[in-house]
């Protein structure tokens, strides 16, 4: 069955390849990756540097196009959209949390969170209401009128999560979102992220940390552009050696 018959499936990668360059100089970043993300599910993506994790995230978010295969968001292949329609899909359905956050320093927390909605044509007043609602969900309503430089790293990261999932967006793509945080703050951010996923979103979490991957429902391991292991987090005994190897990479 296709994703169209399963509305609970938010994201699929079907036989996805990504090759950079041609001939002898070609680099095969991904080589036939299959991945499914459902509502309410957090999937951790692990692997050593150069394994294809960032490429996978860029393809899942429509920032890059596969050389072969399909990326399907809520039942529709991204390759079927025009450039304008694809930009709209990214604004409305896909949210990113980057390690360097990408918060705009001259905008308050509420303005940062509201920005994607305003770019999509929502009135400023309505966009602010949505932004305040999203900030409240991550426990950051008290920083709504603060600028990023007046917030801690953990507060900035929570604001970035609020921006990634503001409005109707349900697919969250997080690239090492706790990489720049101390362990306690990182755990707090993952708690917030897990809560949003449990409320009906779906998330891909790229991480090097086994303790962070433990928050996920499933762990997918990449090496040399291939999925070399995948399993539910409740049954990851076969992957334990892989976890240690990846963590030391």
TrEMBL record:
GO terms for molecular function: ATP binding; ATP hydrolysis activity; transmembrane transporter activity. Pfam families: ABC_tran. The keyword Disulfide bond does not apply. PROSITE patterns: ABC_TRANSPORTER_1 (PS00211), ABC_TRANSPORTER_2 (PS50893). Residues 11-249 form the ABC transporter domain. One of its GO terms (cellular component) is plasma membrane. Keywords: ATP-binding, Nucleotide-binding, Transport. It comes from the Bacteria. The keyword Cytoplasm does not apply. CDD domains: ABC_MJ0796_LolCDE_FtsE (cd03255). This is ABC transporter ATP-binding protein. It comes from Mumia zhuanghuii.
């Amino acid at each position: 069955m296709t994703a169209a018959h399963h509305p609970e499936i938010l994201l699929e990668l079907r036989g996805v390849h990504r090759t950079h360059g041609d001939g002898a100089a070609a680099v095969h970043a991904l080589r036939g990756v299959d991945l499914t993300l459902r509502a309410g599910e957090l999937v951790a993506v692990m692997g050593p540097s150069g394994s294809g994790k960032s490429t996978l995230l860029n393809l899942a978010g429509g920032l890059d196009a596969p050389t072969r295969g399909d990326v399907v968001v809520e039942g529709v292949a991204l390759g079927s959209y025009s450039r304008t329609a694809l930009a709209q899909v990214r604004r409305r359905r896909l949210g990113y949390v980057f390690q360097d956050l990408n918060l705009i320093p001259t905008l308050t927390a509420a303005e940062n969170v509201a920005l994607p909605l305003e770019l999509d044509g929502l009135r400023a007043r309505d966009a602010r209401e949505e932004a305040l609602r999203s900030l409240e969900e991550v426990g950051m309503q008290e920083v709504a009128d603060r600028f990023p430089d007046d917030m801690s790293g953990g507060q900035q990261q929570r604001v970035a999560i609020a921006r990634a999932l503001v409005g109707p967006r349900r697919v969250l793509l997080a690239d090492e979102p706790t990489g720049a945080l101390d362990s306690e703050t990182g755990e707090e951010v993952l708690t917030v992220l897990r809560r949003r996923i449990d409320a009906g979103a779906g998330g891909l979490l790229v991480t090097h940390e086994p303790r962070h991957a433990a928050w996920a429902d499933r762990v997918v391991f990449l090496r040399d552009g291939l999925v070399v292991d995948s399993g539910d987090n409740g049954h990851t005994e076969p992957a334990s050696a892989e976890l240690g190897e990846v963590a030391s990479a």
